[in-house]
Specification:
The chain is mainly alpha-helical and 427 residues long. It is built from 18 helices and 7 strands. A hairpin with a 2-residue loop joins strand 1 and strand 2. Helix 8 crosses helix 9, helix 9 packs antiparallel against helix 17 and helix 10 runs antiparallel to helix 11. It is globular and about 75 Å long. The termini are far apart. It binds acetyl coenzyme *A.
């Protein structure tokens, strides 16, 4: 244990315990600050605030390290499967062969949606964004699965967790099918989690659907890379929503809403749109100049990260996967060349070097998803599908934490001080 932290506030000396984790920065436990000094801390964007204890995921942004339960993301992406990572995040250890088999079977038994939910989809416009549908349908699950909304019951929490992980591919695939006017496809539990999702998305009843193993592997890897990322904005949203005791389906809908933003999960869609708009490598300098111009709100999408001040380790795996998918599908999309060149030019530019702006996971994921055949509007829905595992694991961790309380930040009030009401005729 490190020494106490000493602070002087308004002439008063106070001391706070410093707590150490297994790795990573210590934290100053300032829970008694307000009681002892009457002052709050001020940290918009939580850049220096640890909001909870967590044993799931560790990130060292300076070194470009990402560990799930201690295992490096590169090893998990290369050697494991999304189901294995899901088990790991939920249970803390890698599963034995038997445990993995049982877990995979359990998940596959929950892939179907209540039939009435199909009617629910028909209330949306055909051109609705899949994330709008995901927010609505995932929130609506709490109206369909009443028997797993009691958060005080560990069995119900487990069932809700399995349901969410299992049903998310069905929900996302149906959102896609609805937008293109094709019939919904029922899940095929003889396939892998990811193979089943591909079939529900791209299969049609008129002909058999063959899962391409390279595409299946690539998509499974994308899911692994997006499974969890400690206390990011959407995960913090899930925790905050859950801290009031809200049911897990409602909490996941809140997470999806947060993920949709272009500064977070919406970045993969925005990054590919940007690469397509740039079009050819010759136009890259123009866009780099815009990104550097303080008067232009444009940013290089897929670049920069709140935590990584080094190459995002997920982007490295992603770049390699692009080549594999392109080769297998015989795709020759110039957008990949544009992406590689943009990365090269940006990383040799002083602005990006000084601000430590590197490609993040979303810079290349859109290129792969597009090659597989997903429209850009589906990209964030795929991210939500994968991140559900992290959200569920973090939500479970929070509910089981004896120190958990409702999340209730304070503020620095800058409005008018108390004043008397003036009747309208006298104003
Ligand atoms: N292009 C150009 N300049 C940038 C970029 C970018 N992509 N990202 C950050 N900067 C600049 C900022 O203008 C700021 O400059 P200043 O210090 O002169 O004001 C500096 O770098 C620091 O940026 P902040 O926005 O303060 O960094 P923050 O940690 O708050 O933001 C964020 C991180 C939101 C990811 C940001 O880098 C960004 O908007 N990137 C583009 C969107 C994106 O790719 N998001 C995906 C994130 S990964 C994920 O969600 C899975």
């Amino acid at each position: 244990m490190a020494d106490n932290a000493k602070l002087q506030v308004a002439g008063k000396d106070v001391e706070f315990p410093v707590r150490s984790g297994t790795i990573g920065p210590d934290v100053v436990d300032i829970r008694k600050l307000y009681a002892q000094t009457g002052a709050f801390t001020y940290d918009p964007g939580f850049t220096s605030t640890a909001s909870c204890d967590s044993a799931l995921t560790y990130i060292d942004g300076d070194e470009g390290v990402l560990l799930h339960r201690g295992y490096p993301i590169g090893q998990l992406a290369e050697e494991s499967s999304f189901m294995e990572v899901a088990y790991l995040l939920l249970n803390g250890e890698l599963p034995s062969g038997e445990e993995l088999g049982n877990f995979t079977t359990t998940i596959s038994r929950h892939t179907m949606l209540h039939e009435q939910l199909a009617t629910f989809y028909r209330g949306f416009r055909r051109d609705a964004h899949p994330m709008a549908i995901m927010c609505g349908v995932v929130g609506a699950l709490s109206a369909f699965y009443h028997d797993s909304t009691d958060i005080t019951d560990p069995t119900q929490r487990t069932i809700a967790s399995h349901r969410l992980i299992a049903k998310m591919p069905t929900i996302a695939a149906m959102a896609y099918k609805y937008s293109v006017g094709q019939p919904f496809q029922y899940p095929d539990n003889s396939l892998s989690y990811t193979g089943n999702f591909l079939k529900m998305t791209f299969g049609v009843p008129a002909e058999p659907y063959e899962v391409n193993p390279v595409v299946e592997k690539a998509l499974d890897r994308i899911f692994i890379l997006h499974a969890d990322h400690e206390q990011n904005a959407s995960t913090s949203t899930v925790r905050l929503a859950g801290s009031s005791g809200a049911n897990p389906f409602a909490c996941m809908a809140a997470g999806i809403a947060c993920l949709w933003g272009p500064a977070h999960g919406g970045a993969n869609e925005a990054a590919l749109n940007m690469l397509r708009e740039i079009g050819t490598p010759e136009r890259i300098p123009e866009y780099i100049a815009r990104a550097k111009n303080k008067d232009d709100p444009f940013r290089l999408m897929g670049f920069g990260h709140r935590v990584y001040k080094n190459y995002d380790p997920r982007a490295t795996v992603m770049q390699k996967t692009v080549r594999e998918v392109f080769e297998s599908l015989g795709v020759n999309d110039p957008v990949f060349e544009t992406a590689l060149r943009l990365e090269e030019l940006a990383l040799s530019d002083d602005y990006f070097i000084e601000k430590k702006l590197f490609p993040n996971v979303d810079f290349y994921s859109g290129v792969i998803l597009s090659a597989i055949g997903f429209p850009t509007t589906m990209f964030t829905a795929l991210f939500a599908l994968a991140r559900t595992v992290g959200w569920v694991a973090q939500w479970n961790e929070m509910i089981s934490d004896p120190e958990q309380k409702i999340g209730r930040p304070r503020q620095l009030y800058t409005g008018p001080a108390q004043r008397d009401y003036v009747p309208v005729g006298q104003r």
